[in-house]
Amino acid sequence: MTAGQPMDAAVGREPVMDGPAPDPGEGAASVPEPTPAPDDGEGSASAPKPVGVAAPHGARRVPAPVLNVLSLAAGVAVWALLAAHGVGGLPGPEAVGRRAVEMLRDGTLEGDMLASLRRVLAGFALGTVLAVLVGFLMGWYPVVRALCEPYVQFFRTIPPLALIPVAVVLMGIGETPKIFVIFLAAFLSTVVATLQGVVGVDRTLIDAARVLGARDTAVFLRVVIPAAAPFILVGMRIGLGSAWATVVAAELIAAQEGLGFRMQHAETYYDLDTIFVGLVAIGVLGLVMDRLLLLAEHRLTRWQERR
Amino acid sequence: MTDRTSPPKISFRDVGCRFPVRGGHFTAVDRVSLDVGEREFVTVVGPSGCGKSTLLNMAAGLVTPTSGEVVVDGRRVTGPGPDRGVIFQQYALFPWLTVRRNVEFGLRVAGVGAAERRRRADEAIALVGLGDFADALPKTLSGGMKQRCAIARAYAVDPDVLLMDEPFGALDSLTRVQLQEQLLDTWSRQTRTVVFVTHDVEEAVYLAGRVVVMAARPGRVHRIVDVPLPYPRTEETRLSPEFAALRNEVWSAVHHQAPVEAPAR
Description:
Low-confidence stretches of chain A: 1-55
CATH architecture of the largest domain in chain A: Orthogonal Bundle
Structural class of chain B: alpha/beta
Structural class of chain A: mainly alpha
Mean pLDDT of chain A: 79
Helix content of chain B: 25-40%
Shape of chain B: globular
Oligomer: heterodimer
Distance between the termini of chain B: 36 Å
C-alpha cells in the first residue's frame, strides 16, 4: 500500500523456532466482532486443556461459518415464530421475502439500494481520504494538531444527524447535504483513529529508521504509514458503520429514492413489509462492505502479532 | 587489534546530558570524556540509571548532548547517520517487512539498486545465519533470531561504528552466549569499532578490550578496566583464572560504588 511494498505475501508458513506461535489465521481484529457463536476463546485452541473437563474434542471445533449459519437460521425461525403468534403485527419472514421479490421485480429495491450505496460510498470515500490526510498531519505536526483538535473534538460530540437541518438550509435539498452528513460521520471516526495510529508509532522504530539513514520523508512513508495502517483500517470500519447509520436519516431530506426514503414512505402507509425489506437490505449491504474492509485489513496487517 | 596511537574513532569530549524533571534537572550523563580507538571493542557497564544508554544514544545522534560534544571520525555528531549502526535491545524490526526487506531497509533509503541491494542483504543475512528465514516476518522469529536480523540490518549498510544498547539483555543465556561468539567472530574479521552497553559483567569482560565502568547519579565514568585477554576468545577464556580475576575486578567496580538509592529513569 505504500512506496515500500511492505506487506510481503508469501510468508507465515515458515517453521518457528522457540518464538511465539504462528498466527492461527483468523486473528481477532481490534474491533469486536459480532460473533453469534458461543465463543469460549477460540484463539487459544492450541493451549493445553485440562484433562476430563472440556467437551469432547470433536464437538469443540465446529467451524465458525457453520455456527454462523446455524445461528442465522435459528434467528429466522424465532422471527417466524413471533410473527406467527401475532406479536405487534410483526410481518413474518415469508411475507417480507415476498415483498422483497416484488420490489426486485419492479426494480425499486435495486434502485433504492444503488441510490443509498452511491451516497454511502461517496460520503465514505471523501470522508476517509480527507481523514487520513488530516489525521497524519495532526499526528505528525503538533502545530496542526493544536489547530485542528478543538474542531474535531467539538464536532465529534454533535451527532451528524443534528446537522441535517443546517445542511439543508445551507446546501439545499439535492444530493450535497446527504453526502455531506455521511462524509462528516465517516471523517470524524476515521480522523481520530488515524491520529491515534500516528501518535502511537513506536519511537524505537522511527529511531531505527533514522540510524539506517532514513530522512523525514522516508521515515514517514516507510515507517509511520505502515505502522499506522491497522489503526486507520479500524477507523475506516467504524466510519463505515457511522456512514450507514447516517444514510437513512440523510434520506429524510426530500429524497426520491433510497432505502431510507422507501422506509419513510412505507411508514405513512403502515407498510411494515417494505420497512423490513429496507432494514434487511441496509443490514446486508453494511455487512458485506464491512467484510470487504475486514478482508483488506487482514491482508494489509497480517504482520501484526495477534493475541 | 586495537590501535590507540592513531586519532580516536569516537571521542566523547566533556559530554553531558541533563533532562528537565519536575522541580529541577536530572543529570543522566555528567561531563564524560572517553576516547574509543579505531577497531576497538569497548563495553560500557554500570548500574541502571548510570546513563550508559544515554551515552550511546548521544554517539548515535539520537540524543543531543546538553554540554560538550561527541566526535566521530573528526566530525561532530549532530544527528543519526548510516556510518553508525545501532542495535536496540527491543530489536526494533519493522514488523510489516520480511527479514530480507528489513535488512534491505538502509540500502533502500540510500537508493541502492534492487540487484545490489538483494546481494548485500543476502550476504548479511547469511552472515548471521538467518538464510532459511529471509522471507519470514518478524513475528514468526524467536528473540535471538530477531536480534540477529537486527544485526544483519545494521551490517548491510556497512557502518564503521556499531553501537549496541544491551542487545542481548532480553535473551536467554544460551542464545546470548551464541550471539556473543558470533559477534566477536564477525568483529574480528571486519574493521569495525564497537561500543557495547550491557549490565552483565561477564558479558562486558568477555567481549571487550576495555570495560568502561560507569557510576550513577550523576552518570559518569567510574573506572576503566583493560582486558588484556587475547582474541579469539573461547570457552577456555571464560573458564580461565585471568578471566575470573577481571570479572571480579569489574564486578566490585560496579557493585561497590558509593551507595545510591534506586535510580529513577
